[in-house]
Amino acid sequence: MSLSRGGARPRPGQETPQLSSVINLVAAEMGVSVVPVSLAQVQVRGVRYAAIDGPPPMASLALATHRQATAPAVGNPVGLAAEGPG
């Protein structure tokens, strides 16, 4: 169910740079938050995770590495990223 269909009109409020802090704000009844589904592993009393209907959001990502890195642990992911999806 979407927030608007449920009658909610969320307003941006408190911001935090750490997702763990977001969950604590939700637990303190300071609002709701959209979080990665992987965060549902963090069980906090009073917090319920619900799936969001519709297609998942897409985000552009970048891969950051040291310019002079030569280790295979760095080179392999960089090579895969350069190949693109597929």
Number of helices: 2
Helix- and strand-based class?
mainly alpha
- Sheet-strand content, in percent, reads under 5%
Mean pLDDT: 79
Name the overall outline.
Answer: elongated
Total count of strands: 0
Estimate the helix proportion, in percent: 10-25%
Give the terminus-to-terminus CA distance.
33 Å
Over all CA atoms, what is the radius of gyration? 18 Å
- Describe the sheet with the most strands: none
Low-confidence stretches: none
Order of helices and strands: HH
Detail the topology: elements first, then pairings.
Blueprint: H1 19-27, H2 72-83
General description of the model:
The protein is an all-alpha fold. Helix content is 24%, strand content 0%. It contains two helices and no strands. The protein has helices at 19-27, 72-83. The longest helix is centred in the last third of the chain and has 12 residues, at 72-83. The radius of gyration is 18 Å and the shape is elongated. The mean pLDDT is 79.
Please give a quick description of this structure:
The chain has 86 residues and is mainly alpha-helical. 24% of the residues lie in helices and 0% in strands.
Task: Write a concise keyword list for the protein shown above.
mainly alpha, 2 helices, 86 residues, elongated
